[in-house]
């Protein structure tokens, strides 16, 4: 995994230094299936591609898939820009927007979505903060809020909480911790006061005495499009047909994911089979009987057909720009190509 | 005050360096010690000044040092041992600073010793700016400043070229004329010994024993006018020393 | 006088002879072979090279030869820098970082020099401490960051501590190495004049070790700047390191280069200050 990212950086430098970034080839071969590389993180929300590959949905589309694992979303976006991988799925971040502005990547669909009927992201505080009276999100003024980096989705959520709760954004002390495990450690030890996170991690945390849940993100952000599907601008302009085939395969994977983990309408055997596929990449270091429940726990809905909530994306872009975390000149057209999926 | 070495023997491990040496340095007397390389001259001097303990025998002081002597047994080193980060003046003042001397008195002492060693105009110079001969004069000035009862000089001139050495010998003779210091002066240059020593003690090769003692009666400042006598003494010493030196030289190369 | 003249005439005649005999064997100068391998000062070469590189880089960026994903144009980086000045953020970032650097470096150096002296002067301390120093020095302080956060909190404590620890070990090693290399003859001289232990340490050992300690400072100051980015990874709102990390996360390469340039300028400034200190403290050297 690590070698992948390092190679990514190296080859990116080499390729761009030679000015070849636009020249790399992905021309469809006459007979052989098209080879594509998909970047994934070891999170349940990345299951749809894994399921689509496992169930042969990508084969149906004549796509030969290779998964490339990443530790964080940021290098995945850079790897798409450099042409090392073709498709990825992460939260909208300042980095992603910046790469879109540079004409390297485009959002082509929506993925994880906050919906009223399904449990979504939680707002958490440390025990100490809770004891000190922070029992609801509108009492977060003057408190520290953990984020991985500035311009991450956590930063966005923090400010949206402030906006809705009616206090100034600057009254939240945004505290960058670089990595999710570091945020968790800081929250547990009371070094930071608050954080927001997807339900399966939140659930594990609030089981212990150190962390208390005080609210839901869906109360503060309407129809939050948490993650999106994106690819390189080159694919969007020169390989539209390949993108369409990828999204078709992915959509079938999304349907299976929702049926298995979100709506729970799938038979137990099928769920077990799907869990087995996902387990190869998610919680792979734990035995299946331990990993299985964790994979299923707190799964959030992924938009069927990779539908994209453009309003939410626009709100996020505006926020990044208002905080000067994204270049002012970026437009929705730079960031999103809505021609592949249903946009709403 | 008299400095006495009483039947001193010393070894390093199983190398015997000094064997049963007795000698004394009287007040106002310069005793030169000569001997082949590696015979233990420096060791002897370290024992004399209390920097090293002999295996047997003892270094003794007879009588009291002058009351105003700050450091009765004072060394002058072959390599000058000046602090490069102190000026000429600073190097002299270094050895006065621990003695709670009033500032103006210290300044007077420094001015005095620098004048005696003809260094007054170089008081503010760094050691790196000085020639070898000047550096050794600074070291001598520093030694004089503590008003020593005996100066222990280990080949003080051997790092200098021969002209400088001659000049400095003249200076030392002058100085002795003014101050009348006593010294134990180590050298392996016989001309130096004959020029400066009231008494010359010759050691044998290692283990160093006293091979010969020569007293020279000619006053120091007149020796330059008695070339015949001094040359004769020097030749006699050389005759005695040659075999020892040759043997020592061979011995060293055997060891190596 | 006449003797001098005679002496001078001799070589002159010899030269004349040579010139007369030229037809026998041509006279030519001995070929000069002593050139090169000497450092001459060229003041503006580095500056010139830097300017040329930046111009080439700008041209490369403008023509698209250098992709703006790979590297922002220098003018963009300069723009990011100008923004920092315009908004006044530069002073917030600089003061936050300088605070951490100054406290971390000076406390680390102070403790480092003290421990280094103790290690060098007392054999019992050397026996006890120097294996620890050797064992702990190579540990990347970044690896200890999670522990520092537990011990010192995510506030200034862990940031200063990261720099402090990074500075401490090389200072200890430079100090006791410096003391070990002090000319033994000078110490013996001090003893022979009956100087007190404290005087010998203060007036002979410390000044003798000072050149080594100062070159240790040069290294430890660079280490402190390197560690600044690591130190500001955790919980830093302001600071040059935090700014660089944020630029990286936002893939704002112009800000990234601006931040890195700030670190370089900081490094150059610190290097210059230490050179000044060296020139003054070691003015006794050539
Ligand atoms: N600290 C020491 N430990 C072991 N051996 C020593 C030590 N100091 C001197 N020696 C040895 O003792 C012998 C006498 O040494 P010393 O320096 O006293 O001779 P020296 O007569 O001064 O020689 P030179 O004419 O070369 O100055 C030498 O063989 C030397 O190697
Ligand atoms: Mg010797």
Main attributes of the structure:
heterotrimer, B: 256 residues, alpha/beta, Rossmann fold, six-stranded mixed β-sheet, three-stranded antiparallel β-sheet, 7 helices, globular, C: 286 residues, mainly alpha, MetI-like fold, 11 helices, 0% strand, flat, binds adenosine-5'-triphosphate, binds magnesium ion
Number of domains of chain A: 2
| Strand elements of chain C, count | 0
In angstroms, what separates the terminal alpha carbons of chain C? 42 Å
The CATH class of the largest domain in chain A turns out to be Alpha Beta
What string, H for helix and E for strand, traces the elements of chain A in order? HEHHEHEHEEHEHEHEHEEHHHHHH
Structural class of chain A: alpha/beta
Could you say how many structural domains of chain C there are in total? 1
Q: What does the radius of gyration of chain C come to?
A: 29 Å
Q: What is the H level of CATH, i.e. the homologous superfamily of the largest domain in chain A?
A: Periplasmic binding protein-like II
Description:
The complex is a heterotrimer of chains A (344), B (256) and C (286). Chain A is of the alpha/beta class and 344 residues long. Chain A has two domains: 2-113 and 225-335, D-Maltodextrin-Binding Protein, domain 2; 122-219, Periplasmic binding protein-like II (D-Maltodextrin-Binding Protein, domain 2). In chain A, 43% of the residues lie in helices and 16% in strands. Chain A has 15 helices and ten strands. Chain A has helices at residues 2-17, 47-54, 57-60, 73-82, 94-101, 127-131, 153-165, 180-188, 199-207, 233-238, 240-262, 268-279, 288-296, 310-322, 332-335, and strands spanning 34-41, 63-70, 87-91, 105-110, 122-126, 144-147, 173-176, 194-197, 211-216, 227-232. In chain A, helix 1 packs parallel to helix 4, helix 2 (47-54) packs across helix 11 (240-262) and helix 12 (268-279) packs across helix 13. Chain A is globular, with a radius of gyration of 20 Å. Chain B is α/β, with parallel strands linked by helices. Chain B has one domain (31-43, 73-249): P-loop containing nucleotide triphosphate hydrolases (Rossmann fold), CATH 3.40.50. In chain B, the strands form two sheets. In chain B, strands 5-6-7-3-8-9 form a six-stranded mixed sheet, sandwiched between helices. In chain B, strands 2-1-4 form a three-stranded antiparallel sheet. In chain B, strand 6, helix 5 (162-179) and strand 7 (182-186) form a beta-alpha-beta unit. Chain B is globular and about 50 Å long. The mean pLDDT of chain B is 90. Chain C is mainly α. Chain C has a single domain, classed as Orthogonal Bundle (MetI-like fold). Chain C contains eleven helices and no strands. In chain C, helix 6 (145-152) packs across helix 7 and helix 8 packs antiparallel against helix 9 (197-231). The longest helix of chain C is centred in the last third of the chain and has 35 residues, at 197-231. Chain C starts with a helix and ends in a 5-residue tail after the last helix. Chains in contact: A-C, B-C. The A-C interface holds A 12-13, 16-17, 19, 21, 74, 77-78, 81-82, 93-96, 98-99, 102, 104, 148-152, 173-178, 182, 185-186, 189, 191-192, 325-327 and C 64-71, 146, 149-150, 153-154, 233-237, 242, 245-246, 248-252. The structure holds adenosine-5'-triphosphate (ATP) and magnesium ion. Magnesium ion binds at residues 41-42, 154 of chain B. Adenosine-5'-triphosphate binds at residues 12, 15, 17, 37-43, 188, 206 of chain B.
